[in-house]
Amino acid sequence: MGAAKNHIGGEWVEGARNVPDLNPSNTNDVVGEFPQADAAQVEQAIAAARDAFPAWSRSSIQDRHDILKRIGDEIIARKDELGRLLSREEGKTLPEGIGETVRAGQIFQFFAGECLRLAGEKLASTRPGVEVEVTREPLGVIGLITPWNFPIAIPAWKIAPALAYGNCIVFKPAELVPATAHALSEIIVRAGLPPGVFNLVMGRGSVVGETMTRHPGITAISFTGSVPTGRRVAAACVEADPMKKVQLEMGGKNPLVVLDDADMKTAVECAVNGAFFSTGQRCTASSRLIVTAGIHDRFLEALTERTKALVVDDALKPGTQIGPVVDENQLEQDLRYVQIGKDEGARLVTGGERLNRETPGFYMAPAILADADNRMRIAREEIFGPVATVIRATDYDEALDIANDTPFGLSAGICTTSLKYASHFRRNSEAGMVMVNLPTAGVDYHVPFGGRKGSSYGPREQGRYAAEFYTTVKTAYTFDMNGPYVPRTRSSE
Ligand code: ADP
Q1: Which residues contact 16 (CB under 8 A, 6 or more apart)?
Q2: Local structure of 281: helix, strand or coil
Q3: What are the distances in angstroms from CA 86 to CA 20, 90, 109, 125, 182?
Q4: For site-directed labelling of 388, which of 6, 277, 347, 453 has its Cα 20 to 30 A away?
Q5: Mutate which of 218, 229, 250 to test ligand 1's pocket (most atoms within 8 Å of Cβ)?
Q6: In which domain, by residue range, is 348 found?
Q7: Is ligand 1 within 6 A of the CB of residue 93?
Q8: How many domains does the chain contain in total?
Q9: Percent helix, strand, coil in the chain (nearest 5)?
Q10: 240 and 382 share a domain?
């Protein structure tokens, strides 16, 4: 493809400069050239979105439904092509790329339906003759800032509800995945939105993202990314005048507890999937495997054997199970954490080194660090790569304490055949999402997504709970001068 463009006020426009987008499976493969917006372009996008808001916020729910349905249908119809582009750009395997693409389409279809289901409430007042009505209204212009690890699903789960509830959008994708963002934006723009409702501004976080978080024309920011950037975004939103509504989805250090009575096959599959699929680059990844004493050695052996057999190769190659790490910086960080773990006294059981394949890329052997202590950095800090930390616990009670002893609280899992422990864990886990005999990663799209503690801030995403962030509530009181309705009775006739 030639140099791509940003989309501002209904026009495709050149950026201030272009940068190349590289395939992490083969750095000789340039996916495309993508524009970098400057602050002036971001301001134009915000102005266009503000101009479009009055009409779009009053648009018919049938029109919104039809547009979102068209977007979802086209994404799913083109799943193979879009999934391939995603995998080529981000490095997850082709089945993972296609799966994520289908998910994005399903999210648009779900929110097409939500357009028709937006409901308010009518209540009696405490005062005679007064009626109370609670309704949801759009917020205005919403800034969407997304990370690279789910290049189509995360934008979808922010863009779809923003549009469904009548908001205009300025969308800033991550620097590493502009091609998927561009392809998605082309589909969105073609679906029939009035100019200015949806704007795409690709570029750097420190320029495009900062301008969005500080600009008074943006009413709210939904962000997914790292904890330090999330903090900056939240601080900028509060310092802005007027203050912005803000929603942050950040990191995780998700525990997967494996109890003595676990089904071994299920436990190993949950651990391998949760820790290493998508190259471990998921905020819901199972990065702490907390294993009780009676099963620990057998589980570690089975897990190690399964991990050694994983095929790490070019994301687009048939048979690849683990694609490359997204870029050189991330790979260096992953390798650094393996070294930190060894220095802290953990035992590297397998993997943890850079691999060479036919093409130059960022390949890494999935690493298992055993005999870890929950106080170690490898047990407390998010690594965001194919690195699993195994921690031994004496029994269920200690495993639960370790699982909850973390600054994060996104997802938590347990593998057990005991209803007693499964139920207790569901109730006592300090995470936003709990999985029983399932990996910590892998969620549905029609129910809330989000966490507690340092993982999330603000209302949940996805499902009908998305309305909490993408709308503002109005409470209207009406005094009816005709007085209340009094039913006629037979005796008065
Ligand atoms: P990651 O690179 O791991 O996805 P980051 O938190 O660095 O996590 O980035 C997430 C998103 O936030 C990206 O789109 C990035 O460009 C953007 N971003 C980075 N710095 C800022 C900032 N200061 N203000 C707003 N957005 C930013």
Answers
A1: 35, 36, 37, 38, 41, 203
A2: coil
A3: 15, 6, 20, 53, 11
A4: 453
A5: 229
A6: 255-436
A7: no
A8: 2
A9: 40, 25, 35
A10: no
Residues 287, 161 within the same domain: no
Closest by Cα among 333, 324, 285, 319 to 87: 324
Residue 283 known to be catalytic: yes
Question: Same structural domain for residues 176 and 278?
Answer: no
232 Cβ below 6 A of ligand 1: yes
- 213 C-beta closer than 6 A to ligand 1: yes
- The 10 Å Cβ neighbour count of residue 436 is 15
89 is catalytic: no
Are residues 37 and 172 located together in one domain of the fold?
yes
CATH code, domain with 105? 3.40.605.10
181 CA from centroid of ligand 1 (Å): 15
Which tops the pLDDT comparison, 161 or 485?
161
Phi, psi (rounded to 5 degrees) for 79: -60, -40
- Return the bridge partners of 245, or none: 220
- What is the C-alpha separation between 79 and 105, in angstroms, rounded? 9
Pick the residue whose CA is nearest to atom 9 on ligand 1.
225
Segment 10-62, tens digit of pLDDT: 999 998 899 999 999 999 999 999 999 999 999 999 999 999 999 999 999 99
210-249 per-residue burial string, b: 16 or more CB within 10 A, e: under 16: bbbbebebbbbbbbbbebebbebbbebbeebeeebbbbbb
Residues 347 and 404 both lie in one domain: yes
Index of the ligand 1 atom closest to the CA of residue 227? 6
Domain membership of residue 94 (yes or no) is: yes
Between the CA of 369 and the centroid of ligand 1 the distance, in Å, is 29
> Does 279 lie in the same domain as 140?
no
Mean pLDDT of 155-177: 98
Q: 296 and 279: one domain? A: yes
Instruction: Say whether both 364 and 463 belong to one domain.
Output: no
Closest by alpha carbon to 22, among 176, 180, 203? 176
Residues in the chain, how many?
493
Nearest to 30 by CA among 341, 285, 360, 419: 360
Residue 190 falls inside a structural domain: yes
- Distance between Cα 257 and ligand 1 center (Å): 31
With a pLDDT cut of 90, the percent of the chain lying above it is 95
210 lines ligand 1 (CB under 6 A): yes
Q: Which residue has the tokens 């057990």?
A: 416
CA distance linking residue 179 with residue 372, whole number of Å: 39
Residue 1 in any domain: the answer is no
Q: Where residue 425 sits, what CATH number does that domain have?
A: 3.40.309.10
Among the listed residues 155, 193, 15, 182, the one whose alpha carbon sits nearest the alpha carbon of residue 85 = 182
Whole-model pTM: value is 0.97
Quote the CA–CA distance of 288 and 253 in Å, as a whole number: 7
| In a domain? residue 442 | no
pLDDT of residue 491: 67
Output the DSSP codes for 302-359. Answer: HHHHHHHT--B--TTSTT-SB---SSHHHHHHHHHHHHHHHHHT-EEEE--SEE--SS
